[in-house]
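Let's do one together. I've listed all components of the complex below, 784 residues spread over two lines.
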Amino acid sequence: MRIAWRSGRTLAGTAAGLAAVGTVVGVLAGAAVPAVVLGLGTLTALYCLVLLSVPERLIGWMLLVPALLALLATTAVPIGYMLVTSVYDVGLTTFQYAWRFVGFGNYADLLRRDPQLWPTLWRTLEYLVFGLSLQVGLGLGLALLMNREFPWKRLAQTILVFPVLTTPVVVAMLWKYLFDVQTGLINQTLGLFGIEPQPWLSVQPLPGVSAIPWIGNWLADAGNFTYGFWAIILVTSWQWAPFCFLVLYAGLVSLPQEPFEAARIDGASAWQAFRYLTLPLLLPLILVVTLLRMIDLLKVYAQIWVLFGNLVNTRVLNIHLYTLGLGTHEYSKASALGVLTLLAILAFTWLILPWIHGERVKR
Amino acid sequence: MRNCTVWVLAVLLVAGTWAIPEVTHGQAKVKILAMTSPETRGLKAVAAEFTKKTGIQVEFAEQGRLGYFESVIIQLVAGTDAFDLAQINSTFVTELAAAGAIDFWDEYLNNHKLTNLAEYDLKDIPVIYRYQGKITMIPTDAMSQLLYYRSDLIPTPPQTWDEVLTVSKKWTKSLNPQSPTPYGDGITAMPGPEAPKVFYPVLWSFGGEVFDPQMNPHLTTPETVKAAEFYRSLRPVLPPDFSSYNYPKVLDGLKNGTLAMASTYWNAAYNDIQAGNSPHKDTIKVALVPGVKKADGTIVRKPQTHSWGLLINKRAPSKEAAWKFLLYATGKEGGRIHGKNGGSPFRTSILQDTSWATGPYYPLMVQTLAIATPEPQVTFYSRMHEVMNQMITAVLDGKEPIPAIMERTNASLKALLPAKR
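Okay, and this is what the predicted structure of the assembly comes out as:
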C-alpha cells in the first residue's frame, strides 16, 4: 500500500513537472491555448499531489477546494471589482486611462441626481409584489389542481413545464407577437367576442383605472397600472408560475397522509383541511419558492428588454443598471447601483430566512 | 482509492494534452465582428472576392441586432484581441476614439508600402470621420432616411410634415373607417439606438438644434418646441403600441399592410422589402423625407445620416491583413460588389453610376445624402443619446407640457457638458 502511495505521488509529481515545463515552453512560444491547457494540467497534478499528501481527516475539505475556487473566480472577484469601480470615476472614455477616486460620489450622484432611480425602484417593488403574488398563487393553485386525479393529468403536467424550459428571450418574442394590436392572437381572439383590440404593448392606463376615485390618476401615472407593465407581469408569470407549481406539487405529494385521514374522519371540510393542514405543512416550501422567485424576479431583464427596450415607463432596476452600464457606459455609476441592488437582495434574504428557519423548527 | 483517482486524473491530463489544437503559423486571417444585416451580407460577398484575389481568409463573427452596439463597444474598450475589425455605426466612433480603443487610419493611409493613395481616391468619399484631425473611419455603407409609402393608397408622397399628418389621418382606421390600413404612419419610437435619430429630421427641419454652435444645449427655442409639438400630434395616426416599435416592427408593419407610411425610415429597409415576399412589396415606394415649407415655397428637408463602417481594433492581431481588407472593402471595386449584394454603397462614383443599379433607389440616395445631416459628434454621445431617448418618450407620452420637457432635457444635457472628455 505504501509503495502504491509513493508511486502515486511520483506520478503526480512527474506529471506536474512535465506540465509545468510544457506551460513555460508554451508561454515562451506564444502559444496561448496549449499554455493555458498545460497550466491547468500543472494545477491538476499539483492538486493530486496535495490530495495524496494530506491526512485522511482533511480530505473532505481538500475536495471542496476546486468548487470554492470556481465560486471565488465567478462571484467574489466580480463583486470585488464592482466595489472598486463604484468608488472611482470610470466611463467609456476613461476606462483605459488612470481612474479618478471619487469615494461615495457615485452613490450620492445616483441617489440625488438620477431622475430615473426612484421611479425605477418603485416600479421594481411593484413588479416584485404583484409578480410574486401571481406566480406563487398560480403555482399553488396548479399544484392543488394536479394533486387530484383526472384524465390526461400526466399530459397536462408535461405541458405546464414547457414555459420553464424555454429561454426568456424566446418567451418574450413569442408574447410580443401574441400581444400585437393588429395581428396578435390575443386581440384576434377577443375580436371573436366583439371586444375591441387592446394596446397590450403600450403604456396607456388599463381600462377603468383612471376612473377610480381619489387614486385613479395616480395609479395611471405613477402607479404603473398600464397595459405595458401588466403585460410584463403576465409574461413572466406565464413562464415562472409552472416552476412554483413544480416545487409545491413535489411538496404536496410528499406530505404525510395520516393527518389528512384523521381530519376526514373528524369531518373536516376541504377548506378546513387546506387551511389547517395543507397550508401550514407546505409553508416552509412556499417560503423557499417565494425566496427563489423573489431573487429571480429582481434579476428580470430579457422579457422587458425584448418587449420595450429601455423605455423609462417600464424600466425596472436591472434595465436601469444595464442602461447605465452598457447603454451610457457609466461603469462606476452602474457599479454603485449594482452594489445597492446586491445590498437590497441581501436585506430581503436576511428578512425572509428566519421565517423559513422558524417554520422548519416548528415542524 | 486515492491511487485510482490519481491515475484517472493523469490519464485525463495526457488525453487533454493530446487534444491541444495545433498552433497555426500559416496565412494571416482577418477576423471581423459584425451585426447580422443586409450590409454584412454585402461585406461577406466582398470578403469572398478579396480572398480569391489575395488568399487572405476573412472570418465573420456575427451577432444579432439586440444589444449589438453594447457588445461591440464593451469589447473594444475592454481591449479584446478576439477580432481585427469591428463593424459599427459612425455615431459611436468619436467616443471610441477618445477611449483609445481604436487605431487611426492615417498611419496606414500614409504608408506607401501599404496604400496607393491615388488609386484609393479619397476625394470620391463624401464623408470621412475624424477625431482631433485624425481619421477614425471611412464608411462602407451610407445610411440615411427615406419616406416609405403605399403608392396604391398615396399616389403622391407627402412633401411636408403637415401633409404627412393629413395623409396619415386619411389612412388611419380609427379616423377613417374606410381605410384599408389600420395606421397612417409608423416611426421607430421604442427607446434605443434609433428613436432620437428619427426625431432629428423633424427637429432640424423646424429650425431646432440640440446644441448651438458654442455647444450649449439649445432645446428650449420656439422652433424646437414646435417640432416636438408636431411629433406629439402624430400620436393619433401611430399604432397605440408605438413605444414597442423598433426597426423590425416598423418593417413588419410596412410588409404586412399595417402601416400606410413610415415617414422617416431607414434606407436599408428598401432592399429588405424588395427581397422579401410581402404582398405589398410592389406598391411600397420611397421618396425624400418630408420637411417644412418656407415662405418662398422651398422645402427644408433635413434627413439624418450616419454610416456603417469597420473600425480597426487597437489590439487587432492581424493589422496588416485587416488593412488590406479595409482598403478593398472601402475601395471602388469592393464598394461595387458590396452594393450588388445588399449593401448601401458610400462612394459618390458608385452611387452616381446607374449602369448596374436600377430603379429609383440610388438616385434618391444621392439626393438624400446631399442634404443629410449627421448627429453631433461628441465624446459623450451615449449619454446624450439616453437623454434624448427620455425626451422623446416624454414627448410621445403626451402627459407633460412640451416646454417643461425641453427645459428638463436642456438641464440634463448641460450636466453632461462639464464631464465631456
